[in-house]
Amino acid sequence: MITITIDGKKLQVAPGTSVLAAALDAGIDIPRLCYHKHLLPTGHCRLCVVDVVGFHEPQPACTLAAKDGLVVSTRNEELYKRRKMIIDMLLSDHPMNCTVCDKSGACSLQKYAYDFGMKETTLNFECAREGFKQDDNPFLLRDHQYCILCGRCTRVCDEVVGADAIEFSGRGFESHIATPFNEAMSESACVFCGSCVQVCPTAALMPKVRLGRGREWEFPRIDSVCGYCGVGCRVQYALKPGVEGGMPNGHREIVYAQGYKDAAVNDEFLCTKGRYGWDFASNKERLTRPLVRKDLAKQLGLSDEDWAPDEASPLQTKGAEKNFIPVAWDKALEIITDKLVETIEQNGPDSVAGLASARCTNEDNYVFQKVMRAAIGTNNVDHCARLCHASTVAGLAQAFGSGAMTNGIKEVRDADCVFITGSNTSEAHPVIGYEVVRAVKQGASLVVVDPRRVPITEHARLHLQPTPGTDIFVFMAMMHVILREDWIDKSFISKRTEGFDEFKASVSELTPEIAAEKSGVAAADIELAARLYALGERRSGVSKYGDDRGRSTILYSMGITQRSNGTNLVMTLANLAMMAGHLGKRSSGVNPLRGQSNVQGACDLGALPNVFPGYQKVADEDARAKVAKVWKVPSLPDQAGLTVVEQMRAVEAGDVKALLIMGENPMMSDPNINHVEKALRSAAFVVVSEIFLSETAQLAHVVLPAASSLEKDGTFTNTERRVQKLNKVLHAPGESREDYLVYAELGRRICKRLKKTGINWNFASTAAVMNEISAAAPQYGGISHERLGPEGLTWPCPTADHPGTPILHTEKFTRGKGKFYAGEPSLPAELTDAEYPFVLTTGRMLYHYHTGTMTRRSHPLSWKEPKGYVEINEADAERLGLTEDKPVVIESRRGRIRTRARIGERVAEGVVFVPFHYREAAANLLTQDEALDPVAKIPELKVCAVRVENPAAKSAKTAS
Amino acid sequence: MSVAIENRAELSKELAAFVEEWRNKPGNLIMVLHKIQEEYGYVPEPVAREVARRLRVPEAQVFGVLTFYNFFNLEPPGKHRIAVCMGTACYLKGGGSILEDLSEYLNVPINGVTADKQFSLQAVRCIGCCGLAPAVLIDGEVVGKLTKEKMRETLKKYRENTQEALVTSQAL
Question: How far apart are CA A441 and CA A157, in angstroms?
Answer without folding.
Answer: 12
